[in-house]
Amino acid sequence: MPFRIIVVFLAALVALPALALDLKTPFGSIDGGELALADWAGSPVLVVNTASRCGYTQQYAGLQKLYDRYRDEGLVVLAVPSNDFRQELSSDEKVKEFCEVQFGLDIPMTTITPVRGGDAHPFYASLADEEGFAPRWNFNKVLIGPGGTVAGTWGSRTKPLSGKITRAVEALLE
């Protein structure tokens, strides 16, 4: 009898729909147009919710250095400015100017986007629902592997060039 219960349970698991991150719903691009994570399928993508008036804002420099180090191997670093923690500038134009002037940023960047709660972008909503990860503060990081699955998540205190992140990126680039 226990064997039969296990077989029924496993059959039910197989019948469940596969959970997947929403990589198709595009973000607005701060440069105009759209950015969809699905467009970078086959490449690792580090997605970071950012803010211009945060104690961690200096991490923009590390994000740019990480991108510069690995972009030719295929890494994408996507900055997602958000005002969910009330530390972002008032417009996309101001965010773009700030990042270019202060950090020389040329990583892909979205428009100001909600990343948590009921208004969260569908990528972040699916990340919370399926991975149990929602940004607790600015500069939380999510590494999406080339196959579209979560390869790692880190909080604000983990710097972009930390060994934890660079080792995870390098493993995906091999």
Summarize the structure in words:
This protein is an alpha+beta fold. It has one domain: Glutaredoxin, CATH 3.40.30.10. The chain has five helices and six strands. It has helices at 2-15, 59-70, 92-103, 122-131, 163-173, and strands at residues 27-28, 34-35, 45-50, 76-81, 141-144, 150-154. The strands form two sheets. Strands 4-3-5-6 form a four-stranded mixed β-sheet, covered by helices on one side. Strand 3, helix 2 and strand 4 form a beta-alpha-beta unit. The longest helix has 14 residues, at 2-15. It is globular, with a radius of gyration of 18 Å. The termini are far apart.
Helix count, DSSP H or I runs of 4 or more residues:
5
Query: At the fourth CATH level, what is the homologous superfamily?
Result: Glutaredoxin
Order of helices and strands: HEEEHEHHEEH
> What percent of residues adopt helix (DSSP H or I)?
25-40%
Integer count of domains: 1
